Amino acid sequence: MLKVLDPGILTTIQDAGRWGYQQSGVPVSGAMDLPALRAANQLVRNSPDDAALEIHSPIALETDTPHLIALTGADACFEINGRALPMQMSVFARAGATIEIAPKRAGWIYLAIHGGIDVPRVLGSKSTFLRGKFGGLEGRALVAGDHIRIGAPTLGDLVAAAGRGASIRSMRFSAISGDESPTTNIRVILGPHDDWFTPEAIVALTREEFIVSETADRMGYRLISPSPLRRGGRGEVELISCGVPLGAIQVPADGQPIVLMADHQTTGGYPIIATVIGEDIARVAQSVPGDRLMFRAVTLEGKTIIRE
Amino acid sequence: MIHPQPRLLPAGDAAILVEFADEISDAINDRVHALAHALRAQNRSEIRDLVPAYSSLFVCYDPHRASLADMRAIIQDTLNTPAINSPLAPRLVEIPTRYGGDHGPDLAFVARHNGVTEDDVIRLHTSAIYRVYFVGFTPGFAYLGSTPEQIAAPRMETPRTRVPAGSVGIAGRQTGIYPLESPGGWRIIGHTDLSLFDPTCDPPARLQPGDRVQFIKV
């Protein structure tokens, strides 16, 4: 069990997402940075798609029994009983330990616990969907005083040994996220509605730098475009609403694009100029307001750059 | 315009948008649901989600299990199967609705706006059988066919901050039911106690794409 001392803001339980219910209007949800969630789970010997805590602001937790834990994702200060610990590594927290996590820059951080988080699956997933008020812990973000139940450990001996002060060698994962270079390159596949836009807009998409705005949450990241992405000949008619993918770069009439993220609506009515490839979604997710993104158009077959 | 052949448009590296037309019609929507039904019946592990809409079907696939070429072939083969062209028998779902008063604070407005009586609005609203084109926007929200012209009404200039779940509303010629409490600008003419969305049920949405809906005055 983990007791929540300081819940932070919008700390939720997320797994690899809720598939198969989009035709009922249910978003997929799940971790914003899926590779980071999977790395955290592997570090604590969970199944990679298990549920973990998704953290976005400073939080504090207290253990009641020894737990094998790991922290991944965006760069954070990570302390147990005031002692600084590295991320991307499995560590033991003894019974009665205080775990403090504070993002250095923002972004999404994952705390996995060996045994996994024990909450009921709703429609096949433990992911919290806040707008729908279901999944995770009673469909809401953590609050102070919550008790998070942890699944039965399968590494009983190891946990017991750790409780006596022994240590184990940890495997280390290299950090996938937290790219702090001034501009992040993001690979996209043009379409499905690239023919709605002017040739100039397509060129601008792949040549200009886009700035991540303050309007960035689990639903989507609104970007600031140096020049509005204009619609071409078909621009006078409205698009007929259709299903939309994770990573879709939707362009409303103002020409300022929005990248759809984990909690995006299942259908949308804005044309999609291009779609971020699965491998690069986490890099978009871990960008923070003010960061700059550059889109590179690739083909599906080779994922090679087709336009510079 | 109806495309001579449905367009199979890649949407990123894990989805294909199958676009049948760029117009809304019942015949096109039938084809969307027929393809969704046929693909679902194949029970394929590479398909993760199917999202029907007015005139397109969005197919999410697992790129580790199938390539774009594989998926194109699966969809094309399914489209070429004769069974896909036979329409499905739709399910009719009745929505018991209390009109007017506290249940439908905008019933009087809709009547006045159209120069008809409140009873006329109820009669016209309950006389139509509406198609569920698709479900989207929020969990369980069904996009229904048009209301009769005589009860169309503009959205509110200032949306309400809180519309209770089960509210039955009109916006333009659209009618719909709020599945969850939310803000909203539709003209609320009634309320149903029927639960439209329950995440503990499977499927969680009461109304499924392709269903027919009739409002019943109670």
SSE blueprint and pairings:
The complex is a heterodimer of chains A (308) and B (218).
Chain A: E1 2-6, E2 12-14, H1 34-43, E3 52-55, E4 59-63, E5 67-73, E6 76-80, E7 83-84, E8 90-93, E9 98-103, E10 109-113, E11 147-148, H2 156-163, E12 183-190, H3 199-207, E13 209-216, E14 220-224, E15 242-243, E16 248-250, E17 258-260, E18 267-268, E19 272-276, H4 281-285, E20 292-298, E21 305-307
Parallel strand pairs in A: 12-20
Antiparallel strand pairs in A: 1-4, 1-11, 2-3, 3-10, 4-9, 5-8, 5-10, 6-7, 6-9, 12-19, 13-14, 13-20, 14-17, 15-18, 16-17, 16-19, 20-21
Chain B: E1 2-10, E2 15-21, H1 26-41, E3 47-52, E4 56-61, H2 68-80, E5 92-99, H3 107-114, H4 118-127, E6 130-135, E7 142-144, E8 160-163, E9 167-171, E10 174-177, E11 182-184, E12 187-191, E13 212-217
Parallel strand pairs in B: 5-13
Antiparallel strand pairs in B: 1-2, 2-4, 3-4, 5-12, 6-7, 6-13, 8-11, 9-10, 9-12
Helix pairs in contact in B: 3-4
